[in-house]
Structures are given as structure tokens and as C-alpha cells.
Sequence to fold (93 residues):
Amino acid sequence: MINIYKNRDFYLSAYLISKGCPLAGHSKENQTTTLFEFEETKLLKELVEKYYSMTASVEPMSYGAAIRSLKSVIHSANTNSESFNNGNRFYNK
Fold:
């Protein structure tokens, strides 16, 4: 069974994407809040811990690209996350 990690933190989600964690899905909770979903793995847990303990590092260009991609997701009229996951659009290595 696959566990899903959900969070509302836009910048954490961009960090996870820039580190190679594919966005599994997203949904709008209300007009101002988006819930981001990732497959919960050991790597993801380690990255979240590094992010919140302020020991994380990231390649700036990759992080900037992930931020721009997530902004397009949350501002898109289509909230069906599957249309964004086909072809691993958010999988950055």
C-alpha cells in the first residue's frame, strides 16, 4: 500500500519537487489553499526533516523552476492533478 504525504506548504512542495520527489497530486481545499500530495518514502521523510530543521540545500535554478511550475498548477483552472502528472512533468532530477 502506498502512503501519501500531504501538506499545504508551497515552498516545501517546491523544494521536494526540486529534489526529485514527483508530485502525486494536488487539490484545492478552498479558494486560497492548495493541498499538495507526494508518495511518502524514506527519502521524502529525510528531505522534510532537513527542510524544517533548516539544514536543506537546493540547486537554485531547479528550485526556481519548481516554484514556477507549482504556481502554474495552483492558478490553473483545471484542478485535476492527473493532467499534470502524465509524463512526469514535475519530476526533476
User: Anything to note?
Assistant: The radius of gyration is 12 Å. The first helix runs from residue 10 to 18. The beta strands are 4-7, 23-28, 34-39.
